[in-house]
Structures are given as structure tokens and as C-alpha cells.
Recover the amino acids of this structure.
């Protein structure tokens, strides 16, 4: 156990913090946008931090032994990061994934030496992961443990990192931080840290339209379920996961899938590289908040996350044929975004 914990601590020291990219849009004078590039992590996504924390949590609680098989349920990015750390520690890893997961993500898990247990019904991934646990695997349980595995008071969590990087910026205390909610761990960490530091920054969760967290937060019901499905992987859960903390979230903005994809396409034009659909969801929510601030005559800054690499979605969200098969045409939304975001005085 000591050697595994030491390996994880050394990896954390080697992994430089991710960049905070600055952007201004002509349509929003006086409002600075910041994008925390979590796709720059060695395993390519925001989930790198979570995966490290989950392994440490399992090791320090005595749940993970030497050579033990590891399992978790994931729609892709968490599984890739967990497979990356399993290889680092020399452990066998199984990802329980919906069969509809983007092929690029499945290939990435396998390339890292992990196995993929593909489930036709996405709602059954939890039960299938529990089955593996019953066979002797250590269940990392991102959905059950994400909000407690990360030390929200510090230790280089994402909220502490963002605020440290903003310290010398014109608006060091952002008006909003925007993130999606998959496990709920990131929103819990950020929301708790903002309150711990006594900041006026508000937390917005960007959610695919009709997903469970939006309905649950609005009605304050933990038994809420999704009203419709989404093609945006990693967020838009069918149920309210245990890690979702209603009380630390100030607003939830629902975003249609076509709008999320269009925003991801726009971001490629602005930043010069691709990011996934959940990043598009984040950007769409940021733009709505910025429009409200502009209309009220407010200035300030908005921070959001670049969640994972867009190359993972080359066969889905960035493939016109795949989009046509799913009845999604983001081009009208993209044209509207260009007109309203990139034009002065929009």
C-alpha cells in the first residue's frame, strides 16, 4: 500500500497544474472568460484528478490490495483516467460502460490495458459494477464517493487552483464558476471551497436539457429522474447521483444537445483545438450568464472547464453522418452563436 500511495504522490508532483486560458468576446465588453484546460492532464480530462483521488481513497481506507482487480462504472473519461492509473500501479482494471459510449473512449481504455464490459442498458452499469465487486474487485465507485474522495479544503483541488491562477487578474474573484455534473464531485468541491473561502462567487451547473440533476435541484428531490436522453457524455445523468449536493449550487442552466455541440464547434474556432460535448454545454451556460451580466451593466469574470479532448468524439459529435443519424444539426445554432458572440454590440 505504501508503495502505491508513494507512486500516486509522485505522479501528482510531476503533473504540472493545468493552464487557465483567457478569452474576451466582442459581444460582452468588460467580461473576461477563463477556461481551465483540464484536457491537458496526462489522461486527457478533468477526471484525472478524480481518478487519483479515488485510488488514494481506496488505498487509505484499506479497500484496495496489492494486485487486486479494480472496477468502476463510467461513460468514458473517468474510465480512461482510472485505466491510466491502474497501469501506473500495475493493477488490472475493468470499465463498465454503456455500449453506446463513443468508440474513441472505448479504444482509449483498451489501449491503456483496461478491459471494457459494455452494457446495452446504461441504467444497468451500477448493478454490473456491483457484480464485479462481488467477484472480488475493488469498486472505485465514482458516483458514490466522488464528493468525499477529494479534499475540498485544499490539496490542489480544482477550485483552489482556479482561484490561485486568478489572483493577479483584473477580476480575481469571479462572478461565476460554471461546471457540468456527472458524479457531482466537481460541483461539490467547487461549491464547498467557495463557501470555505467566504467568496461571493456563485456556482452554476450546466446540464443537458431534461437530465435528472436539473429537475432534482429545482424541486429539491433526490428521487428525480431524467425526462429525456442526451448524447452529451459524462454529464446529464439519468438519476440524481449521491454526490450531487443541492445546497452548494446557485443555479442550474439546461442546454439543448444541438446547442452544446454548436458551442463545442465554436470553441474549436476560438481556441484552435477540439473539446468534448460537456465543454460545449459549459460554454453555452457561460454565454447565457454573460448576457445577463451585460444586460444589467455588470462587469466581471466567468470561469469554466475544458473537460476532455475533442478527438475522442471524432466519430460522434464532430461527425456529420453520426449527427444526421441522430437527427441533430448544430449548424443553425453555430451560426447564431457566431452572430451573437463574436460580433461587437450583439
Amino acid at each position: 500500500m505504501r508503495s502505491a500511495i508513494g507512486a500516486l504522490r509522485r505522479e501528482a508532483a510531476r503533473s504540472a497544474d493545468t493552464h487557465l486560458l483567457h478569452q474576451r468576446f466582442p459581444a460582452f465588453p468588460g467580461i473576461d472568460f477563463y477556461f481551465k484546460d483540464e484536457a491537458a492532464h496526462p489522461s486527457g480530462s478533468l477526471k484525472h484528478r478524480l481518478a487519483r483521488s479515488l485510488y488514494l481513497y481506496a488505498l487509505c481506507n484499506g479497500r484496495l490490495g496489492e494486485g487486486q482487480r479494480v472496477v468502476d462504472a463510467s461513460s468514458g473519461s473517468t474510465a480512461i483516467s482510472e485505466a491510466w492509473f491502474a497501469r501506473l500501479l500495475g493493477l488490472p482494471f475493468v470499465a463498465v460502460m454503456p455500449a453506446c459510449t463513443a468508440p474513441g473512449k472505448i479504444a482509449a481504455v483498451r489501449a491503456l490495458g483496461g478491459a471494457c464490459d459494455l452494457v446495452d442498458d446504461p441504467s444497468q452499469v451500477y448493478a454490473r459494477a456491483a457484480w464485479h465487486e462481488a467477484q472480488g474487485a475493488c469498486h472505485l465507485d465514482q458516483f458514490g464517493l466522488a464528493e468525499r474522495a477529494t479534499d475540498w479544503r485544499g490539496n490542489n483541488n480544482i477550485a483552489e487552483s482556479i482561484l490561485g491562477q486568478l489572483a493577479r487578474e483584473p477580476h480575481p474573484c469571479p462572478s461565476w464558476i460554471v461546471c457540468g455534473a456527472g458524479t457531482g464531485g466537481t460541483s461539490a468541491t467547487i461549491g464547498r471551497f467557495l463557501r470555505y473561502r467566504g467568496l461571493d462567487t456563485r456556482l452554476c451547473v450546466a446540464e443537458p436539457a431534461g437530465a435528472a440533476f436539473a429537475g432534482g435541484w429545482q424541486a429539491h428531490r433526490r428521487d428525480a429522474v431524467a425526462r429525456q436522453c442526451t448524447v452529451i457524455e459524462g454529464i446529464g445523468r439519468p438519476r440524481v447521483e449521491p454526490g450531487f449536493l443541492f445546497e452548494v449550487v446557485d443555479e442550474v442552466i439546461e442546454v439543448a444537445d444541438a446547442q452544446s455541440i454548436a458551442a463545442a464547434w465554436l470553441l474549436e474556432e476560438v481556441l484552435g483545438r477540439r473539446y468534448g460535448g460537456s465543454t460545449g454545454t459549459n460554454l453555452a451556460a457561460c454565454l447565457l450568464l454573460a448576457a445577463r451580466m451585460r444586460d444589467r451593466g455588470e462587469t466581471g469574470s466567468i470561469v469554466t472547464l475544458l473537460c476532455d479532448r475533442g478527438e475522442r468524439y471524432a466519430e460522434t459529435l464532430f461527425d456529420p453522418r453520426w449527427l444526421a443519424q441522430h437527427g441533430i444539426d448544430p449548424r443553425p445554432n453555430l451560426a447564431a452563436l457566431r452572430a451573437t458572440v463574436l460580433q461587437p454590440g450583439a
